[in-house]
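Researcher: Please translate sequence to structure tokens.
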Amino acid sequence: MNGLAFQCAGEHLEALPAGALHWPSRRLLAVADLHFEKGSSYAVNALKLLPRHDTRQTLTMLGGLVEWLRPETVVCLGDSFHDREAIARLPAAERAEIERLTRLARFIWIAGNHDPVPPPAGWGHVAEEIADAPLVFRHEAQFGPAEGEISGHYHPVAALSIRGRSLRRRCFLTDGRRVILPAFGAYAGGLNALDPAIAQLFPSDYDALVVGKEVVRRLSWRQLRPDATVASLA
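Model: Translation complete:
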């Protein structure tokens, strides 16, 4: 698994193919928008017929990173649980896996707009945002200058055309001053990286760190497409 090294606010970071951010000097791992139990939410509300294994898939990816990197801290950047009943719907095996992971590292759960109920005691700390100079971690990017801001919320995806084939890939977005992480959750979906809601946060140039199966590639926003008809979040 080959991460891509880049800088934000002078700090050396790594964008990992799994869609997580690694800050090696702080032994910190950050993930955004896990949306645990989104599949079961849809099943309960009969909105869509989705397999109810998304939490298991997401935890498998997260667990692999924690065991590989052995971070001291894991920051979950909000929308970790899909709705207020998500924790109650967690199957016993997935609940046990969360408890195992929270014993391996210190978890910090940033509150998001899908997180009206905090996780149970013993699963880590809850915060609106945390600052670890020169970086600050929050759920949603603030409009205007934000040196060292790390956030999620937008689920950015890059639309590409490669040899006549339309592709859609999760991506990190950065201008060297802020970083927006892709959604880590298996069913999270995405918003085009050129959408005005995202583009307004980057007043000048910004890059997409595009996630592939094994590598991350850096592209200018000028190389992206505003549309994509083929959805593939591999």
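Researcher: Any highlights?
Model: Residues 8 and 176 are 4 Å apart (CA to CA).
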